[in-house]
Amino acid sequence: MIFPTIEFACFFVVVLVGSWLLMPNPRWWRPFILLASLAFYAYADWRFVGLLLLSVVLNQAAATLIASSADPVYRRRVLWCAVVADIAVLAVFKYVDFFATSIDAMLERLGIGMPLPLLHLALPIAISFFTFQAISYVVDVYRGDVPLARPIDTAIYLTFFPHLVAGPIVRAREFIPQLTSGPRDPRRVPAAPALMLIAGGLVKKVVIADVLATRLVDPVFGSPSSYNPVEVWLAVLGYAAQIYCDFSAYTDMAIGFAMLLGFRFPQNFDRPYRARSLRDFWHRWHMTLSRWLRDYVYVPLGGSRRGVRRTYLNLMLTFLIGGLWHGAAWTFVIWGAIHGGGLVVQRWWAGRRREPVGATVARAGTAHDDDGGSVEEVGPLGYGVAPVSAASTGADRATVVIRPDPVAPGFDGSGPVAVGVLAPRRLVLRRRPSATGRPAPGSTTPGAATGRSAATGRPTAGPDATGPGTTGPSSTGPAATGPGTSGPAGGLPPGLAWALTFAVVCLAWVFFRAPDLTVALEVLGRLVTGWSVPLTIVTPTVVLLVAAGLGTQWVPDRFWYGVQERFAALSVVFQGVLLGLLIVACNVVIGQAGVAPFLYFRF
Q1: Which residue in 83, 197, 225, 517 has the most C-beta neighbors within 10 A?
Q2: Among 578, 559, 563, 545, residue whose Cα is nearest residue 246
Q3: Catalytic one among 163, 283, 286, 326?
Q4: pLDDT (tens digit, 9 = 90+) per residue, 16-65?
Q5: In terms of domains, do 594 and 555 share one?
Q6: Which helix (H) or strand (E) holds 81?
């Protein structure tokens, strides 16, 4: 059941009405929303409902054992058993055949004919997503970041249908407290922002992503040698636009549907193609995965605490794991290696230039999520250049203050803004007072306004105001320079830094999209050869959609604020009618041969 379809619209209307009627009575609402989520998953593939429930039972049992014991050795053993069991289930379905065929190929090159047996198992939908969420729940209970939840709350957390299939990856500490906060009031549901998110997601998915896939990307990546280099270049750019519009559309719609049901999800995108470094890109792209990899892979590996070489290794391992998480193929491994290697090079370059800590923290703050009073790891994916404590010493060192930003844009800055979306924790940099007791030059004012207005979602005035177009706690002063700001990134002119970053990201997308290494290399080779082949698929519509898919990230915020305000002024009934007409138009008028599944469904 895909979001932009009549079938899902009918399903969601039934769930929404039932949810609003039962919200005041949690005793009945919880079983209702759990059964609705299981029905949603069963409609996609009923064979794996049992596997999903097994994950719920396994991880709830492990969390219960951990929470009921004070023995650190026993707790650690239970944690490891749960994590190994989760990874083992994921590996059986997703990776066993991949590694078996890879080993077979290697042995064959060595002249050893010993084929390994293959399982040929179907891949359960969303297994990567619900496995990562299950692991984070058990680990967070072990760390004491979240209390043990009731079994039904854990089941709802792992199966909740808006985020089940393709994210965002919601933490237990972000979701479960919303389940236990008391009776839910349907009158407080922010319907207008939610409907704006859903409408924007529909347009990005059906009008841009699906059309680019059928008219440009799929033909070129299916047979690169049949097309002119101009078409191949356009297809590479088209895939960058397609995957962004496709994935961010699902996130926008998931956030919107969750808001209508009374939940807030974390932001997952923040204009990623405006990034001026790979570090900045990963603070903007799939932000929930970025934070998950940081907290549950990079930091446990040692982060940046064990020397420079170990830090480089940890970065590479983190991104290789991230690549394999996306798919069991060497193309995904290479995609991860490109990003990991790029971050290593960027970190090495920053170390040579002795980049100031403030420049690093300014952008990292948007992706950090920590309830503690200090920041241990700062830089790529929120970790990087140097440890920074909450009480750094030295007159020119920054004090790091962690503040929860109560409201964040639901869209990523390239579309409507939704009030009521969980924001990442913000890092507010303050200079230590000078000897005279006055703030150091360029510091933020302790009493400055913070965050966004809960009424409008707009950034509030003051040095601490943060929004999609900013890159950290303050847009002025020494701490505000660095990747993503108006100044040079990594010592390069902003335009050149952006161009290099976008080129590396697009290079990696070639491997991400190609079905195998042969096709990926053929696409790269075709970028400079085959000029005699006539142009066949470059049309004004295709060029316009590529430009729209990439260019929306530069639309000013005030435009989207204005659109949302005008939409919110309409009656809720009229808003719903407009959304219904848009769904019908996307399914009928546009003439696509059915709505294609979201790209991240297969992960």
Answers
A1: 197
A2: 545
A3: 326
A4: 999 989 888 888 999 999 999 999 999 988 899 999 999 999 999 999 99
A5: yes
A6: helix 72-94
The DSSP element (H or E) to which 426 belongs, if any, is: strand 425-431
Q: Which amino acid is at 460?
A: T
Q: Do 158 and 133 form a contact (C-beta atoms < 8 A)?
A: yes
Contacts of 382 (CB under 8 A, 6+ apart): 283, 290, 291, 294, 364, 367, 368, 369
**Domains contained in the chain, number:** 3
By three-state DSSP, how is residue 450 classified?
strand
Beta-bridge partner residues of 429: 400
What whole-number distance in Å separates Cα of residue 381 and Cα of residue 379? 6
Percent of the chain whose pLDDT exceeds 90? 51
Structure tokens at 142: 């072990």
pLDDT band at residue 419 under the 50/70/90 scheme:
very low
Shared-domain flag, residues 29 and 141 = yes
Residue 414 structural domain: 275-480
326 is catalytic: yes
* pTM of the full structure: 0.79
Do 377 and 235 belong together in one domain? no
- Per the CB < 8 A criterion, the answer to whether 373 and 390 are in contact is yes
Q: Alpha-carbon distance 86 to 325, whole Å?
A: 13
Cβ atoms of 138 and 83 within 8 Å: the answer is yes
409, 267 in Cβ contact below 8 A? yes
Answer left, alpha or beta for residue 441, where phi above 0 means left and psi between -120 and 50 means alpha.
beta
- Domain end point (choices 129, 159, 183): 183
Query: Are residues 40 and 11 in contact, defined by beta-carbon separation less than 8 angstroms?
Result: yes
Residues 168 and 213 in one domain: no
